[in-house]
Structure formats: structure tokens, C-alpha cells
């Protein structure tokens, strides 16, 4: 029995969905809070770079787990409670393609 390849529409449906009003908050969070260690341009600093080339070989699920649970023994704090799993997945997906610019804190 052959398995049909996922169509682009069904593959798109599988991506994490984040409410539009929350997107601005998440972008600001990553650019400011994450940027305080990973560099405001996400090119690296105290923490490693969060650019597409730097993340290319990192497993998506591992990156999501790092956002949610932090990295014990390092300055990387857990963000569980600040973001939910779907939002962490959205952040990883955006980082993997080039993160959007900060439009400022949500109003």
C-alpha cells in the first residue's frame, strides 16, 4: 500500500498556528529577551547564534524542548509558562527561516 505524499496545503496545516495578536508579542520576546543573550540580531553573544545556518542541523524537537525547559547548568532559562509548546514551535520555525524584525511591544 503506497502512502500519498503530503500536499502543500496539508503540510501548511500542520505548521503551528499562533494568533496574529500574539505574533507581535513573540517577535518582541525573542528579539529582546532572547536577544539579550543571543545578540539583538541573533548572531550570537553569551548564547549561540539563532540564525538559519546555525540551526540548520539542530533537531526541531530539541530546539522546542530547549525553549520550554531551558538548559540546566547554563544561563538558558526555561520559557515554559511564558510560551506554550505551539508558540515555541512557531519560534523555532521562524528562526529556521530568518526571524522577523521587532515591531515593538504589543499595545
Could you characterize what this model shows?
With 107 residues, this protein is mainly α. 49% of the residues lie in helices and 0% in strands. It is built from 5 helices and no strands. The protein is globular, with a radius of gyration of 15 Å.
Annotation field: number of helices: 5
Number of strands: 0
Rg, Cα atoms, Å: 15 Å
**Strand percentage, roughly?**
under 5%
Q: Helical percent range?
A: 40-55%
Oligomer: single chain
Structural class: mainly alpha
**Which whole number gives the mean pLDDT?**
86
Distance between the termini: 53 Å
> Shape from CA axes?
globular
Q: What is the N-to-C order of secondary-structure elements (H for helix, E for strand)? A: HHHHH
The major β-sheet equals: none
Which consecutive residue ranges, at least 5 long each, have pLDDT under 50?
A: 1-13
